[in-house]
Amino acid sequence: MVKRKPPDAVHNDVTGVIHGPLVQARDVFGGVHFHETVSLPVPSQLPPRPRLVDREAAIAQLDALREEATDVPLTVLITGPAGVGKSALSVAWAHQIRPHFPDGQLYADLRGHSGVGLAAPHEVLGDFLHSLGVPTDLIPGELPQRVALYRTVTQDQRVLVLLEDAMTAAQVRPLLPASSASVTVVTSRYRLAGLLMQGVRGVYVDRFDAEASLALLRDALGSDRLEQQYEAASELIELCMRLPLALSVAAARLAARPNWPLREMVTALAEEQRTLAALTIGDDVALRSALDLSYRALRPDTARLYRLLSLIPGDRFGGDAAAALAGISRMESRRLLGELTDANLLTDIADGRYRFHHALVRSHASLLVEAEEQRETRDRAVGCLLGWYLATAACAERRLRPYRTGLPRDAEPPPAEVTDFGGPEDALEWLESERANLSAAVTLAYECGREVTAWQLADSMWALFLFMGHHVERVEVEETGLAAARSCGDQYAEGKMLNRLGLSLNALGRRDEAVARFEEALEIWRRLGEREREVGSLHRLGLVAAGRGDRDAAIARLTDVIAAYQVLGAGRKAALARMDLAGVLLAQDRGLDAVVHLERARHLLRGVDDSYNRTRVGIFLGYAHTAAGDHDRADRELRAALETMSELGSSAGMAAALEGLGNLAERTGRRDEARRMYEAALESIDQDGSIGYVRIKARLDTFDRYV
């Protein structure tokens, strides 16, 4: 995956309105906001380039279609039967033409036949928009709005989009870019007539002819071995029905046994097909027989892991997850995964992760685990996997938010080998890379009756959603977590998940639903006598009031919340509430009043392991003192904050401080310095989809007009 460099991966637990730039806040309302930014390179998401055999005619056809398309976006649909090599062709051609698409290459597996559920267009669009530089907090929640933003962002872009394994035209349509300089490649077993009727060009991929099949075997086994056993090789090709997938699996088995005569493989494969003939027809016979033969050649421990891997809820997995699932060491897991990759049953992808070589291979493993493993064994393996996800997510959570202690994360026994992280950036990167698997694990835990695991895992994902957004997916995860908490009758858990869900709904602008969740949580906390959490729900209701523009009500509510936190001795939470209140006051141009609350917040945060928020107080104070006319104090605050944000690696924080310094210079008549500060802030953001970028660019544009 694309490596994210989150500037705010240090103790980010912030709520409220900010006058001027906002550095990744949890709950945002009113005023001008500078949302979370991350430094992302131009997306380059294509899978590794495969070795391609005998597809020159198809490549030439694809090249011709591209040359013909001049003033409209080109979409090509590559179709053909299962196992025929559609994916290899599409990826190879995409790599061939990628230099023509400097604005990015996007990739998505639409999971038409993966066995883990179809990829939802709104989910894929969210990832695409983020990869193209749109901050997560600016990505809309609903599909129509995401489609509109995607088309806007790609309007003048030269992008290449590869969509594999589509099931329906409805999956594909929202993902087509708008630019006439773009190309989209779609693979599917189906003709998808709805796309073809709209002008999408079709390329059909057929099975190999005999010569191409021999070329594949020659590439894997060597010319000498093939020529010496030509007759057996020819029979093997026909038994594999000249399907590249079946041939590749058979060739991998033969390559692992260089002294094994091809005639023995032919005999074994023929026997397999006679056995399967009564159960399957057509291409399934060739594919299933080749997979069965390859499977039975695996050593017992390798075969066991192959079966168990089909229980993983996501479509990609790493060695640590496989180790936990099978109850083996990480070293042993890596060795066995390597053997499965050598057998062409798995494919290794970026960052040490794997996936099944083909959806048919996963289905094959799934059939075997049902047939050969007892229900208790499967349940135990799933429990071990969920335990690893829970323990690792909890570890990442502690790295990102070390001040939160005593969180319930005991639903499953911890794994024998715990995965840890070097720092907050590594923790956030892991959470983001495992996001799809973690979300699927929440659903899996709930569906298999592990309700406590489900809500604890959903709760442990909060740090991910706090830093990265993903609001729509966040709501789905937290709704499942809430249902799980209610199923196990844990009112404390129910209250927590109600608060989580309320924040997510509020972030999507669904204010009435958010209020309902917060009020439900408030009732639970009062019933349980949890005064501090009761105040937390009141705090959140104040944020909703501010979000609706009712500033007087928000100020009254936040003032009461601050007083209650002070009585409870909850200094850090009181500090955050004061920052929220200062944001409302700044929006009312009450800079001096805001300074009072921000200085108190700074005092309360002394000694708290939350340097990120302490630095944010300095940025707020810089804006407040600028507004109040104390320019020297504003300069000191902003420059100190800039230095600290640079040390923390927060590009968003640096941009906020730089913009503040530019604003200060502009107010005091130092236009050249203001320009330099704005330009530096713009360079720090380096993301033209953000509100901050647009705002600073507009300020620079006004400078140019009045030169």
CATH topology grouping of the domain at 56-204: Rossmann fold
* Most strands sheet: 5 strands, parallel
Summarize model confidence as the mean pLDDT: 84
Contiguous helical run count: 33
Strand order of the largest sheet: 2-3-4-1-5
CATH architecture label of the domain at 56-204? 3-Layer(aba) Sandwich
Number of strands: 8
| Class based on secondary structure composition and strand pairing | mainly alpha
Strand content: 5-15%
Termini Cα gap: 44 Å
The stretches of 5 or more residues where confidence is low (pLDDT under 50) are: 1-38, 278-282
Query: What is the 3D form?
Result: globular
Describe the structure.
It contains 33 helices and eight strands. The protein has 707 residues and is mainly alpha-helical. The protein has a five-stranded parallel beta sheet, with helices on both faces. Strands 6-8-7 form a three-stranded antiparallel beta sheet. Helix 31 packs antiparallel against helix 32. The chain is globular, with a radius of gyration of 29 Å. It comes from Nonomuraea turkmeniaca. This is Tetratricopeptide repeat protein. Pfam families: TPR_12.
